Amino acid sequence: MYKRKVKILFLCTGNSCRSQMAEGWANHLGSEWLEATSAGIEAHGKNPRAIAVMREAGVDISHQESTRVTPPMLAQADLVVTVCGHADEHCPALPPGVRKKHWPLEDPAKATGTEEQIMAKFRATRDEIKSRVEGLIGGLKMMARSDPHERT
């Protein structure tokens, strides 16, 4: 059992797709020992296609909020994961001790074509994010297991 939950903040430009999906996957896959939130440099509202493809995978993100990042959010995080280049470049300065990772994910909201082609791009992004979150969780668990101060 872990002493406290690891807090992860997923940061994107508008907090409408990629960061929302990452928050949903992290909480779905690691809720017993981590707490994920998401925010944006701006808040653009939630993308209905992101909600739909996550629902297809059995993860409900419809209750999540599209929010703008604040200094208290950054201060509470153990790890900030930027999921797009714009957020990585414009990420506010992090408080001491807060680690940062960058995942350069394409924005599915910029996909063009038929509805099926656009949804295929959203599904591909969803699946890539799931894979990255699984890898992140595995790495964090290994670190926590090797550090006796992180467990009870």
UniProtKB/TrEMBL annotation:
One of its GO terms (biological process) is response to arsenic-containing substance. Residues 6-139 form the Phosphotyrosine protein phosphatase I domain. The keyword tRNA processing does not apply. Keywords: Arsenical resistance, Cytoplasm, Disulfide bond, Oxidoreductase, Redox-active center. InterPro entries: Arsenate_reductase_ArsC (IPR014064), Ptyr_pPase (IPR023485), Ptyr_pPase_sf (IPR036196). It holds the Pfam family LMWPc. GO terms for molecular function: arsenate reductase (thioredoxin) activity; protein tyrosine phosphatase activity. It comes from Candidatus Muproteobacteria bacterium RIFCSPLOWO2_01_FULL_60_18. This is Arsenate reductase (Thioredoxin). It comes from the Bacteria. The keyword Cytoplasm applies. NCBIfam families: arsC_pI258_fam (TIGR02691).
